[in-house]
Every structure is written in C-alpha cells, then in structure tokens.
Amino acid sequence: MKRILSLATLVCLVAGVLGLAVSSHAQVQIKLLRSFNVSALFDGSAASGGEGVIDVAYDGANAYLTGFRAQTGAGPVGVIRVDNVLDLPSGNLGFGTGVTKIIAVTAAGGSRDTRLVYHDGFLYFGYGLGHNANPDTAIRKYDTNGLLQFMWSGDGLLSLADLGVSRYDTIAIDPGFGGSGASLAVAPLHTGAAQAVRRVSLPAGTVLGTSNTIVPTFLRDIDFAPNGDLYMHRASTDTNDGIFKAVRTGADSYATPVRIVAFDAGNFQQGTVTYVPFSAVYPTLSDFIAYNLRTPTLDPTTHKLYLADPNGNSLGSWDGSGQTEDGVNVNAFGHNLINSTYYITPTGRVLLFVASGQVPASPAGTIDRLDVLEVLPAIEVNGTVALGDFGGDVGTVPVVFEIRNPGETTPIETHVVQPDSTGAYALITSLYGTFDVAAKASHWLRQVIPGVNLTGTPVTLNFSLTNGDIDGDNEVTLFDFGALVAAFGSVPGDSNWNPDADLDGDQEVTLFDFGVLVRNFGAIGDE
C-alpha cells in the first residue's frame, strides 16, 4: 500500500490525459500509462496471491501485488513481484519470467484484509488483518526477494501480543513528528471503542510508542501526510463513515479526529485511503488523498477512485476507464475493491499505482487490475481573444494556443480551442512553471505573451489578434493581397471562394476586406 518518496535519488485536450470528473477545486489530472489484467495471478489457487488483488507497493522499478481471501476459512495469500513494470506493455499478466510469487502465507478468510508497504529496501506485509489469532493474521518484514527477516520483532512475527491488541487492521509508514523519525504505524480494529496507533521500529520491530485513543471504531485504513497528520477510513454498521483527519501534535499524540469526507459505507474491510504529497513536486498546488467507497449494497456508480484535498474538498473521481499511453482501451472498474500507492521519481514525476480487485461474488466481467497513472497539474488558462476587424461570429473561429519554453518557438503543448461568442476561452494545461503562451487564428497574426507564470490556477491571459494574414505565413504582405484579389467578389459556393480572404466575416470578399488588409499591411506577427 502507501508509498515511497524518492525525490533524492477538468477537461483537458492534451493527448493521453484522462478527464477526471472534476470539481471547481481540481488542480490535478491523470494520464493512464499502463493497465494490466492480473486475474491469472489472483484466482485463489495455492500458486496465486489470493482471491482478489487489494494492494500494491512499488520500489522504483518493480511492483508488488498482494491479495486477500474472500471465502471463509484460512487459505493462500501472497505477494507477487512484477519486475520493471513500467517497461511492460499493457495487457494480460501471468506467471513467468519477471512475474513471480515471492511470498506465500496462509491467511484468515472471510474477507479479512491485506496491506503491503515498501520502505528502504524492505516490504512490510500485514495479512489476515481483522482476524483475532496469529499466525493466520500477522505482520512480517521481508526483503524484496521475499526473504523473511527472522530476527525482526524477535521471531519474525509482530504478534497481537507484542502490540497489546486483540486485532490489528492496517499498517502504514509513519514519517514521524518533530524529528522522531519514520516508523511502521499499526492501527487496530475494534467495533466498540476508540483505539491507539502503535509506532513500531522499522529496523527492529519493537514498539516505540502508543498514541492517545484517536482511532475510530470500524477502522479500515490509515495514511499520513509528510507533517505527520493522520488520515483514517471508517466503514461501519452506522452512517458516521468517511475519511477522518487527526492533526499531529506530538510523536504519539493527535488532536481529536474530524470527519472531512462524509459517506455511508457498508461494514466491510478493504476500505482504503492514500495520501499523495503532490506539493513536493508542485509547491503551489495542493496535496490530495485517494480513497474508495464500499457502499452497503453494491452500487456501480461508486466503483471509482475518489480524490480530495487534505481538507476533504472533492477533486473528482476516476471510474477506471480510458486509453493507455500504449493504445489499449480499458473499461470502468467492475467493483469497489480499489487501493493505491504513489511514487515520486527522481525526475519529479508523480506516479499512482492502482490495484482493483474482484471476488467470486463480483459482477460478471470484473477483473483484477493494476493500473499505472501519472498525476499531472491541471492549470486553467482563461481569458478573451479579440479578433481584430472581424464582424462575424467569434465562436466559429478555432484558436490555436501553444505553450512554449521561454524564448523558444517549438510548442510543448498545443490546444485548439473554440471561444464562445464573446471571445472567452479556457483551457487546461499540465505544464508547471514559467512559459511563453502563443495564440493564432486562421487569418490573424500570432501573438505571444512571454514569461507567463503557470504555477497557480486560474491564469488569465487576454489576446488581441491582428487581421489580414490570408496565406497563414504570419505576415500581411503582397501575397495576402494576391490571395484577396483572386477571391474578390466571391461568396460561399463560388469556385474562387476563399474563407480566409473574408477578413471581416460577412460571407463575401469585398472592398471592406481590402480595407482591413490595407490598414494592417506590413504587420508581422510574433514568432
């Protein structure tokens, strides 16, 4: 599950970027890089990782998938390593070279949960979570080849007795507070009383501290912000479900939790939450949380990965559908068993790995999936485009916007936008930083606004374009005069009709168009 930060080592027309079902708060958009059908790895057999995939970890090259057992009674669960996952084409994954089961355990069934985190070269694996007896529920430490660390926690098993709890529910990497350092956070499951979070030494597996009782009943998952604030997913028999936030006040103390996202979930495990520190790469933009929603009865409209800012304001949702970067079309999620983990590459790309599972009772056609997304900024650029000397309908004239590196003419992004009848336009860019922005319409000269700061949203840019460039060479010259003469007197349907010579937009080429050309003769657009 949850992530590793490795900086050290809306509606968008940019190709390959998916349109989130966005809210007015949205500052993110997603690009679907890869999608894998991993059902063959989670068929419930002894060789599999379980009956449904439920979590994913990533070490910078390899993905690690794990599942859970839905049927009653203990059964096989494990961790499957997918080597160099970003180098693989989208499609079906089966066991073979580069796809290996590295950890095999027997875990409690009855839809007891599983969690997996990667940190500094090791995997921390919790399985049978919610069950009340070891060894069918356990938390263990392994290397990335699946070798159990036998001396961790004394005997290789962080037991219920070691923690002083009757059932543990979930694990996450706690970044610490006030210099306390990173640890493994373990949160227990209890249906009758609030509980405490235990901090466990990552190297030794010993308990470092116990928090005040801030974990709600019916806890399903936790994660942390870089400053140590705690986010918790509650799903219960009552209606007080949702995502709760507890502000960190000390190494082992938190303020009273506040419900920041409210929903009514069913009394199910496999509720998830992931904190993504988006601002680590894009400092002026908000971090966000990703979570699922398991309704009391299966509701296809909620089979989504939901996004919200750290205060719970909705940023939208993704239903799982889209086309991958390598051209594979994928369908929407068939179930609400959805979990995620993030990774920030050394070059500053924010990746989101999404595991979505199915169980024998899932709707027909549901598959186990691993999706790899890139999370990008969603910076809105808006304003008006004034088309000089034009009396026609501005809304019929497409405008080409180019976003370029400062001082360069090669576009990094190109957006073709149809303004409204007043000339108002809006576009969404995934670029972040300082850029030049150019606008050009058919028989108007290009205008470039240099040094635009695209680090906040929205950014307002107003353009005023000069008319007369009939031949499209970004100058008003004798060549344009020749083109106007050739079309002079024509109307739509005539053999010599040239819509670009109708400079004033009155559906005929007349002396009025000649007047526009004369007024602007010799003008040159920005490069």
Word description of this protein:
- The chain is mainly beta and 527 residues long.
- The protein has two domains: 374 residues, TolB, C-terminal domain (Neuraminidase, 6 Propeller); 141 residues, Immunoglobulin-like, CATH 2.60.40.
- 4% of the residues lie in helices and 41% in strands.
- The chain has three helices and 38 strands.
- Strands 1, 2, 3, 7, 28, 29 and 30 form a seven-stranded mixed sheet that branches. Strands 4-5-6-8 form a four-stranded antiparallel sheet, with no helix packed on it. A four-stranded antiparallel sheet has the order 12-13-14-15.
- The longest helix is centred in the C-terminal third of the chain and has 10 residues.
- The relative contact order is 0.12.
- The N terminus is likely disordered.
Spans of at least 5 consecutive residues with low confidence? 1-15
Mean pLDDT comes to: 95
Q: How large a portion of the residues is in β-strands, by DSSP E?
A: 35-45%
The coarse overall form would be elongated
- The radius of gyration over CA amounts to 28 Å
| Protein structure class | mainly beta
Instruction: Supply the CATH superfamily name of the largest domain.
Output: TolB, C-terminal domain
Secondary-structure arrangement, i.e. CATH architecture of the largest domain: 6 Propeller
User: Number of helix segments?
Assistant: 3
Query: Quick one: how many beta strands?
Result: 38
Question: Terminal Cα separation, in Å?
Answer: 49 Å
**Largest sheet descriptor:** 7 strands, mixed
According to CATH, what is the topology of the largest domain? Neuraminidase
What is the CATH class name of the largest domain?
A: Mainly Beta
How many separate domains make up the residues? 2
Helix content: under 10%
